[in-house]
Records
---
Amino acid sequence: MATLTRAAARALLRKTRSPALGLDVSPSRVGLAVSGPGGGGALPLGTIKRAARDVRAVSGKIAAAATRHRAVVLAVGWPLEPSGVAGERCAAVRAFVDAVRAEAALPPVVFVDERFTTQAARHALGEAGAATAHGAEDAAAAALIVEALLEEERAPPSRFFADDGAPG
């Protein structure tokens, strides 16, 4: 299983005109979203509950979503500290991704700076009058992660995403 740079992931999405599956990983849930074919926008799909020891079930659900949507890239949120440092949360996400990869055949992964996505998702849901339950926030944050990956090509770092030096 490969880890891609953001530029390589965007090139693959353009070349194949296939979607990316976004993941917002938290200790209790994984938010899912999918981009449009060839990189048009992102749609929140929902969440997967994480049980502490049941990586196989979560892996299977992520693999099923990737297959169902024909995703060629997994855009995984990289939870840097506000200062830009990769801390304990990044280590936890890396360990989760490695465990999921060991259980299921998945598309290549690209890590995308996810600082402030949950707050932005909460704000957007509130502005739209939508529910702001954690599951909805996680799926909306996953959509923002995918959109951040897609937007980097068209503009300098967007409103809340900086060049993060994430692995890959």
Note: Residues 154-165 have pLDDT under 50 and may be disordered.
---
Amino acid sequence: MIKILVVDDEKAICDLIDLNLSSAGYHCTTVQDGLTAIDKIEHENYDLILLDVMLPGADGYDIMEYIRPLGVPVIFVTAKHAVKDRVRGLKLGADDYLVK
């Protein structure tokens, strides 16, 4: 089963993404802060990470720098819509950048 880590500080968004992906057959783990996300990434393997930028503890850009050497695909899902934010996320190695 494909394992997806959903990292977003808004629990309602995590729950909605989890509900939709779980109904499609994916196994989701959700966390609401950057430090917990890093801990999960250190102890489990994921096939995909959906990552918000604005997080308590460590922001999504910092987490992306940690994830990049692991080779796990990452899609930023964030409210940050400025071109500079998109460029930064993609330059850090994200596979895509989606605006909420």
Note: The two ends are 26 Å apart (CA to CA).
---
Amino acid sequence: REIAGEVLAVPVGAQTQKLNGMITFSETGALLWKLLEEPRTVKDLALRLACACGLNIREVEADVQEFVDKALARGLIVQCD
């Protein structure tokens, strides 16, 4: 959800027990979160982030992987085959 200009992940159902409260994203995290509305690879996310920020894909790929790993671990996203 976007509330007062901030992008938040609001847990529902069983996730409310796993996550204590809402998750607020940084500007970069919000961009990645919005991109994840559709299935994407880490490489695609990194490419889109690099283009949006005027960076080289190699500069952001590790950070994107970390974001995805944390989101997977917290159950915020699921991995598609």
Note: The first strand starts at residue 2 and ends at 3.
